[in-house]
Write a structure and sequence with these properties.
Order of helices and strands: EEEHEHEE
CATH superfamily: RutC-like
Family: Belongs to the RutC family.
Pfam family, one: Ribonuc_L-PSP
Distance between the termini: 8 Å
CATH class: Alpha Beta
Number of strands: 6
Strand content: 25-35%
Helix content: 10-25%
Strand order of the largest sheet: 1-2-3-6-4-5
Number of domains: 1
CATH topology: 60s Ribosomal Protein L30, Chain: A
Largest sheet: 6 strands, mixed
GO molecular function: deaminase activity
Number of helices: 2
């Protein structure tokens, strides 16, 4: 059994997936692309800005689930160009302090909306009793 996470103020998600779900003491957050935190419109900028916005989306969703970035145990980073990994990594490090979560990073052929980065995560839920 799992519970869908609803994000206050976020547009209704009509796609066949949840932004996040809580299950077995964890919050599983779907991949987040860079969006403006107010309009939720996709933002096309450099990799640093796109990484920052993707992480801010993760943060907003985690907080709606009662969790936070400091409770993230695993991330997966999808990049349209692995050569942008160093710049992505500098921005990423500003948000995930030591001990940093486990992480995988991959170059992929294409990302939604032509963005440069998409990030998903798994975090600890506030309590397993929230289901």
């Amino acid at each position: 059994m799992f519970k869908e996470v609803n994000v206050p103020g976020a547009p209704v998600n009509n796609a066949p997936y949840s932004r996040a779900v809580i299950a077995n003491g964890f919050v599983f957050v779907s991949g987040q692309v860079p969006t403006d935190p107010v309009s939720f419109e996709v933002v096309h900028g450099d990799i640093t800005e796109q990484t920052r916005l993707s992480i801010l989306s993760l943060k907003k969703i985690l907080e709606a689930a009662g969790s936070s970035l400091d409770k993230v145990v695993k991330t997966t980073v999808f990049l349209s160009d692995i050569n942008e990994w160093p710049a992505m990594n500098v921005e990423y490090a500003k948000h995930f302090l030591k001990p940093a979560p486990a992480r995988s990073a991959f170059q992929v052929a294409n990302l939604p909306f032509g963005v440069k980065v998409e990030i998903e995560c798994i975090a600890l839920a506030p309590t397993a009793g929230n289901l």
